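Work Package 4 report. The design task specified in the project plan requires that, given a folded chain encoded as structure tokens, an amino acid be chosen for each position. We show below one input record used in the internal validation round.
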């Protein structure tokens, strides 16, 4: 099986980390739009769970963002969330609630606040596969 890289425009990683830091100590979350095998836009969202260990995007935000993505002829490229105190790896809950098998899951860890980590995964049928992240021109 070939592992495709996640292609993020320059600066998008930094915006995700900034959102994670702004929401800490709660988990942050967001949606990443994409087209033609690359990310195009990051939508920071509210964590409806207001939790340190769980996240969900409020239904009204998800509907608004999904409609905007579709109006731009894009797709949901990735689902983003942070782990404020643990490693950037899908938890058992993340795996169980992975409802977008065609999207990447981007997880930012703030366990070491001076060295945040962003990792990318696909989660299909409970199987987690890591993907490299490649920065591309914006």
């Amino acid at each position: 099986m070939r592992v495709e890289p996640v292609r993020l425009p320059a600066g998008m990683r930094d915006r995700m980390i900034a959102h994670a830091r702004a929401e800490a100590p709660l988990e942050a979350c967001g949606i990443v739009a994409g087209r033609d095998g690359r990310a195009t836009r990051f939508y920071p969202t509210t964590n409806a769970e207001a939790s340190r260990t769980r996240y969900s995007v409020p239904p009204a935000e998800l509907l608004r963002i999904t409609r905007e993505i579709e109006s731009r002829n894009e797709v949901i490229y990735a689902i983003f969330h942070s782990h404020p105190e643990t490693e950037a790896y899908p938890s058992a809950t993340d795996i169980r609630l992975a409802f977008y098998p065609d999207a990447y899951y981007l997880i930012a860890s703030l366990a070491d606040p001076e060295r945040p980590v962003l990792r990318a995964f696909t989660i299909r049928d409970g199987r987690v596969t890591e993907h490299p992240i490649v920065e591309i021109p914006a």
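The mean pLDDT is 96. Validation will be extended to a larger panel in the next phase.
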